[in-house]
Amino acid sequence: MCQESYACSGTDEAVFECDECCSLQCLRCEEELHRQERLRNHERIRLKPGHIPYCDPCKGPNGHLPGVRQRAAVRCQTCKINLCLECQKRTHSGGNKRRHPVTVYHVTKIQELLEEEEMDEDTKRKKMTEKVVSFLLVDENEEIQVTNEEDFIRKLDCKPDQHLKVVSIFGNTGDGKSHTLNHTFFYGREVFKTSPAQESCTVGVWAAYDPVHKVAVIDTEGLLGATVNISQRTRLLLKVLAISDLVIYRTHADRLHNDLFKFLGDASEAYLKHFTKELKATTARCGLDVPLSTLGPAVIIFHETVHTQLLGSDHPSEVPEKLIQDRFRKLGRFPEAFSSIHYKGTRTYNPPTDFSGLRRALEQQLENNTTRSPRHPGVIFKALKALSDRFSGDIPDDQMAHSSFFPDEYFTCSCLCLSCGAGCKNSMNHGKEGVPHEAKSRCSYSHQYDNRVYTCKACYERGKEVSVVPKTSASTDSPWMGLAKYAWSGYVIECPNCGVVYRSRQYWFGNQDPVDTVVRTEIVHVWPGTDGFLKDNNNAAQRLLDGMNFMAQSVSELSLGPTKAVTSWLTDQIAPAYWRPNSQILNCNKCATSFKDNDTKHHCRACGEGFCDSCSSKTRPVPERGWGPAPVRVCDNCYEARNVQLDVTEAQADDEGGTLIARKVGEAVQNTLGAVVTAIDIPLGLVKDAARPAYWVPDHEILHCHNCRKEFSIKLSKHHCRACGQGFCDECSHDRRAVPSRGWDHPVRVCFNCNKKPGDL
């Protein structure tokens, strides 16, 4: 609306802004006012939709300057001036001016666009970075703090299909890495935290998105800091370096120290040795069409001095990059992994530091897509996640090497051979991909681990290495025929290619040792979690017991139904009159557990109801039922109420007398037979222990299931896995599978874990 009210009443829409009148004017007021001689030369501009005037107190001597003067937030109706928020606070926060009526200007989207059009390029860039915030990407324990790709993109605050590059910074603690990123990318805004304190203010890895250059900026923890797990944090730096397109090494020293060259040289060696293979696999999984040779980042060494000249100043004929390569060569370090190394120096005579040269060098490298192409943020997250999953875990103190920034121990498997102490040469967590342990050196024999393996000599001479094991019978023999041949000819050694190559008692006399004739002996490494190699796989006795047990079990299962029916009928015939018949007892009278076909039902001698064994395990005399003074089985409820006398009539006692005598005779016979069975069980256990293969865990050492940890009892039987030899319950070992490495060529019982293993057991 018109702010003059000279020719109107202040209700007409403003059309012009007069900078010298400091007001917005309608068409009539502008015409009437500027007819006057003294106002005729005022500079007026026609208003655009949503126009907001400039602040009057901010006006400079040369008129309004876009980008310098602030737009007004309010207009004081008394003073007739437009004020920005700062000027309003300065001039109208005290005294009578606090009570002056004001009109508020509402900034619209159109006005913001108009302001952006009037801004210069530098101001537009500043405005784009006003809302940028950093977030913790990886903590000091190498754990990624974003859950998935979507979370990573959301925290970066960029579009999912946005192509971007990654810029990271390295350097010693206290050299101003976070300060450098803030001034190089975000125009001095404290996106990454800085602090004047002695303690490091950057712990872990932080990230932010620069919308101007379209890069993900990563700030890292400084080297040589007071950290506890320094080895893991150093390994974390190389993971960040591996996903970066451009690396800034920030150093604030008058001369370049050897630490800089050692760090970059060791990082290059570790990158080529451990990371190229994993990055190539990640590149294939993510669909990146980038050759392996271009995966190395470019490096810019940003060197700030105060009292000394920059590198190359005293050698004008030589470029600084050549001098840097000479330093690498003198130290025996070769940074072959990096696509390029550039030097950018600045000498700070008086603060603040000039970062413009670094910014130009960065922009030049970011525009160069010949070595590193921009990619989606999801691909960046996948690469970091793959490296974190591969190279993770604690680094033992005794394996830390201090002669190198990135020793092999940071990235290789930490397992040691139990026999010779050699370390595994494969990468960390290689077991997840099914890759076995390997060592650079050969192993030595240990009697404790018996780390020998047999290989077929005939196959070895044909260029193949086939492992063989002594076993009871050949794979082509049936179980019973194999036992018969074993009794006559002894154990066999069978090759998958050559068949049976050796029988221990093939001849009446003169049988030679297999090592001298058909097999080669090789000493192999013993890794933690593996068994011996030539343990006695002679399972003939156990196979015989298994066969007998199978036959007995089959007969028992087939006869279980008829036997139970006859037993229940006989029991009911000699049971006292007050006992509930077995046919009517379906559940335990106390815990309501359903009885299965092979479960035993017990009667309480006091109340006559049916119970399971655990609910009727107590005993006490029941003379009121005619059982005399001797303790007999009662349920828990009757045991607790043992002082309560039952009202039993004499007639009932007479009726029950005959049936009680019959029941007592039946129990005497049953107890006698039970004692005989127990006497047989003791030597049977000794026979089973003698027949046990050497790799089986003895029965007396198995207290609970190796998988579900259930404790074994009379009702819960023990079963051995034929592959690992551990003890399991039936539910955890009901799978059947051949175990040729243990001499079981036909499907036998194996546990869940062994059944999941790929290939032959």
TrEMBL record:
SMART domains given in the database record: FYVE
Quaternary state and interactors: Interacts with RAB18 (in GTP-bound form). Interacts with BSCL2 in a RAB18-dependent manner. Interacts with ZW10.
Subcellular location: Endoplasmic reticulum; Golgi apparatus, Golgi stack; Lipid droplet; Mitochondrion
Domain B box-type: 1-47
Keywords linked to the UniProt accession: Endoplasmic reticulum, Golgi apparatus, Lipid droplet, Metal-binding, Mitochondrion, Repeat, Zinc, Zinc-finger
Molecular functions (GO terms): 1-phosphatidylinositol binding; phosphatidylinositol-3,4,5-trisphosphate binding; phosphatidylinositol-3,4-bisphosphate binding; phosphatidylinositol-3-phosphate binding; zinc ion binding
Organism annotation: Diceros bicornis minor (South-central black rhinoceros)
CDD domains the record matches: Bbox1_ZFYVE1_rpt1, Bbox1_ZFYVE1_rpt2, FYVE_ZFYV1, GBP
InterPro entries: P-loop_NTPase, ZFYV1, ZFYVE1_first_BBox1, ZFYVE1_second_BBox1, Znf_B-box, Znf_FYVE, Znf_FYVE-rel, Znf_FYVE_PHD
PROSITE patterns cross-referenced by the UniProt entry: ZF_BBOX, ZF_FYVE
One BP annotation, GO: lipid droplet formation
Name of the molecule in the record: Zinc finger FYVE domain-containing protein 1
CC terms in the record's Gene Ontology section: endoplasmic reticulum; Golgi stack; lipid droplet; mitochondrion; phagophore assembly site
Annotated FYVE-type domain residues: 582-643, 699-759
Repeat as UniProt keyword: yes
